[in-house]
Design brief:
The protein is globular, with a radius of gyration of 15 Å. The mean pLDDT is 94. It has four helices and five strands; from the N terminus they run βααβββαβα. Helix content is 33%, strand content 28%. It starts with a strand and ends in a 15-residue tail after the last helix.
């Protein structure tokens, strides 16, 4: 099993993983545009977990300079492991790698927002050492 930075060639498999995470098919053209743009951004880290030439996990962190933090802040935007590979420590390895990168990037902290419906994910993040400390408010534009 290998954790590595994502490449352009991984785009389709990452798309499929993220559709699984979001439980819906996202517009591929929009995804493709954002993926190609973000993979070149030095403040965005896309990581994949690969086993026998198949992507079985994906994680991304965005690092920002925010005025309300004394140092840079990292935020996990996505973290997914294929359903049949869950429960084997792969997600924890991926989260640990993202925390390691955040420390190397001199971040003060790493945050993650998680849908209230994903109770298993809440327990996962707590096991990884995250604490519930904020509320997130969302407004969609139609």
């Amino acid at each position: 099993m290998l954790i590595r930075y994502a490449a352009q060639k991984d785009m389709q498999e990452i798309y499929e993983l993220l559709c699984e995470l979001e439980v819906k098919k996202m517009p591929y053209d929009d995804f493709q545009y954002t993926y190609k743009k973000n993979i070149e951004d030095e403040n965005i880290h896309y990581l994949v977990v690969e086993e026998q030439n198949q992507l079985i996990g994906f994680g991304s962190i965005h690092i920002q300079n925010l005025l309300h933090h004394s140092k840079r802040a990292a935020e996990i935007q996505e973290l997914i492991v294929m359903d049949k590979y869950r429960g084997h420590g792969i997600g924890a390895m991926l989260a640990n790698k993202m925390m390691e990168i955040s420390k190397e990037e001199d971040c003060e902290l790493i945050e993650v927002c998680c849908n209230r419906k994903r109770m298993d994910a809440h327990l996962f993040y707590e096991k990884c050492g995250f604490k519930k400390s904020h509320y997130k408010f969302t407004k969609f534009f139609e």
